[in-house]
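Hi R.,

Quick one: here's the MFS transporter sequence you asked about.
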Amino acid sequence: MTDRLFDILPARYKNPKTEFLGHPKGLWVLFWTEGWLSFAQYGMLSILVVYLKDILQHTDRARHILGLPSLLSINDSLYAPSGLDATAGSLSGLIMAVIFAAPFVGSFMADHGLGRTRSAVIGISLLTVSFTLMMAESCFVLALWLFLAGVALSGSLKAQVGALYTLEDRRRSDAYQLYSQSIQIMAIISPLLCAFLGTIAWRWAFMATACAMMMGLAGYLMGCRYLPEETASFAVGKDIRPVGCTVVEKKRIVFLLWLVGLFALGVLPNQEIMDGYLLWGSDHYRLTVMGITCPVSTLVSLDSVISMITGFLVLWFWRWYDHRRGRPGHDMTKIIIGSAIATAGPLFLIAGEYVCPAPHQISLWWGVAFHTVNDIGCGMTFPIGMALFSRYAPARYSTTLISCFTLHIFLGNLMVGKLAGMLHQIPDALFWSLHSGAAFLSTLGLMASSRIGSRLFLAGSSHG
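And here's the predicted structure, written out as tokens:
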């Protein structure tokens, strides 16, 4: 793999004058864009399972939603849910699963002619239209399809972050940490605002997400000049067939795809937060704080606050640790440590229910403990894993493979949908033990694979 293939930046991006706060200005354009996209997406997802439950228990409203019977039929064939909570939970899990699989399709198109910037502009535009349509309840399913198409095409944003840096640039991992913080910041604000607006009328919540998408689209269009230029490999109409992969690159691709499966098991506790966890929390948590009863979707904002704090702590810790050692630590080692930590998260929920088995009696401090441990683990696995995929994916397939990384969330959400359908069907202790056990299996798999990864990543490169 030659440096020339990765060195896709025009000269102006290598000029320090084009940097801001130690990073290329393009990173902050993507930070802004991804932030507003996250506002819209997390706002919608934080109320999705509650919104679906509200629709399903009012058949007079459900019958007026175009395409809903077909969507429920697909959900029934996959999960066969029993009961209102199980149906809403499994359908929410299915939608979230497809959300994280869609970018793979869009990134493949970006890598094979459409181009990253053009793909992102089309995708963000579709997202804006989809959230606008969600304000009309009868068009909700149609809006979902447009939303999935928009998510697919906007998936190239993550690849554009990596393309701002050369392969050897140590700031690449830090950039993905900062990029992830844009998601966390908006994931704090959006669920709180959308939950509040949803108590007035659902359409007001969706109006807020539509306005956020307009902000993201405007910022991206104005900041395009700071983004990496497309190379010949990504230009429309260019023949990309002569660009091949070496044997080592092919082995790396296979290994990265293997990691996707392991990450899928490890992500189950985190992905359940947007699904069955909210249903479980509404039954078990004491949600009254200082005399104010908070909507259950506030738990998503709580998670985002903790995630942002732990994210910065993780970033600081690894910078301090690398400086103390005098060289960067191995990405795989950091990921394994994060996965092991995340394993312990669901155990706090089991302990909380054991101490306070009565409904609505579990203190939110048990939730804080769960979110803290879970978010420390995710803060090590998700951004560092994305940076690893960005660093070692062959240039021709970089956008596609970086989106492949998010396929682990797709696979995880498929399993989460099935698990959410088991809520109240099995003991809660067993329910959360399954999540913890899956994360433990992921950790064991990563440990067993780390030696193979070290050999592959060191081959033809000085980076581990």
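The CA atoms of residues 110 and 138 lie 32 Å apart.

Cheers,
M.
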